[in-house]
Design brief:
By secondary structure, the protein is α/β, with parallel strands linked by helices. It is 31% helix and 26% strand. Bound molecules: coenzyme A. Its EC number is 2.3.1.180.
């Protein structure tokens, strides 16, 4: 059985680091409120003129370097983003050009904060079905471009960044001891559109800004994240005790803690980066995976569960043997 095995991971964060205290100058907020309600201490913001595909390209090059693979040898690029440089072409084709690839195919996936698990599921399907041998999967965002800087309940929560993985086809036994993507679980429900959305777009003739019902999102997040992670594990006959690391979407430390508790996984088995990155939407999981590998938490052979939820609502989980 063909498996999509992780061969490299990398990330990039814009140079500018913005600590919570910076918001105290322009908003009725405090470092203490932001830290205690979200766990966020700082985030990175892209420089003027720095775009999502710029961040994505740097993360992609880091992942390619770790894998020892040349950009020209990638078959497909799947880039998860809600903040692409242009309406079209896709940010993925911009990355394709930047890494010197002309023989593969590239496209964006838009599932907001769940974008990375959707991209991983699609990349896995391309490999398992034989449509690609080597896939570059990226999550990259510049959410600083869609913030309402007068809305203290949203603008303090988000950040910019990118993370990337290289998946390569390998023969496995079909058992859960195999390395690679072992299971995926995707969900969406458009009834919840108004809980988290951007109030503009191409068809409505303005870029728009992010709007969110924070409390409602919180409630849905804990319930749906635990449910999707359980579902992904159950599909392959595994449970919480088999998990080495949960690598969750990094939106809010209280959501991460409540979900881990619901799953029955201790916080000593959860990779947490929200304090340093804020919510980077589709970039948050690959960023956390890259940081987790770099700091020695995530090691080859570990069973990893990633889970995410975002606008749509769209949510899902991916189980990977690293
Ligand atoms: C946004 C969030 C941090 C707010 O935390 P909360 O504990 O629910 O706080 P509330 O929304 O009840 O707000 C409490 C008070 O703090 C205020 N407040 C909101 N943002 C504030 C800020 N940055 N600084 C100070 N006060 C703030 C509110 O105005 C409210 O004041 P009020 O009681 O006078 O109306 C929380 O709801 C959350 O994280 N939700 C999920 C968001 C998320 O992760 N979204 C992305 C999913 S992909």
């Amino acid at each position: 059985m063909r498996r999509a095995v992780v061969k490299g991971v990398g990330h990039y964060l814009p140079e500018r680091v913005v600590p919570n205290a910076e918001f105290e100058k322009s908003l009725d907020t405090s470092d203490e409120w932001i830290k205690s309600r979200s766990g966020i201490e700082r985030r990175h913001f892209a420089a003027e003129g720095e775009t999502t595909s710029d961040l994505a390209t740097k993360a992609a090059k880091a992942a390619l370097a770790m894998a020892g693979i040349d950009g020209k040898d990638i078959d497909a690029i799947v880039l998860a983003t809600s903040t692409a440089d242009l309406t079209f072409p896709s940010a993925a084709t911009m990355v394709q050009h930047a890494i010197g690839n002309t023989s593969g195919y590239a496209f964006d996936v838009q599932a907001v904060c769940a974008g990375f698990v959707y991209a991983m599921s699609n990349a896995n399907a391309l490999i398992v079905s034989g449509q690609a041998d080597r896939v570059l999967v990226i999550g990259a965002e510049t959410f600083s471009r869609i913030m309402d800087w007068t809305d203290r309940s949203t603008c303090v929560l988000f950040g910019d960044g990118a993370g990337a993985l290289i998946l390569e086809a390998e023969d496995g036994t079909g058992k859960t001891a195999d390395r690679g993507v072992l299971s995926t679980d995707l969900n969406s429900d458009g009834r919840y559109r108004d809980l988290l959305y951007v109030d503009g777009g191409v068809s409505t003739q303005n870029t728009g800004m992010l709007r969110m019902e924070g409390k409602e999102i919180f409630r849905h997040a804990v319930e749906k994240l635990a449910q999707t992670a359980d579902a992904a594990l159950e599909k392959i006959g595994l449970g919480a005790d088999d998990v080495d690391w949960v690598v969750p979407h990094q939106a809010n430390i209280r959501i991460i803690q409540a979900t881990a508790k619901k799953l029955g996984v201790g916080m000593d088995r959860v990779v947490v980066t929200v304090q340093d990155h804020g919510n980077t939407s589709a970039a948050s999981i690959p960023l956390a995976l890259s940081v987790g590998v770099a700091n020695g938490q995530v090691k080859q052979g570990d069973l990893i569960v990633t889970e995410a939820i975002g606008g749509g609502l769209a949510w899902g989980a991916v189980v990977i043997r690293w």
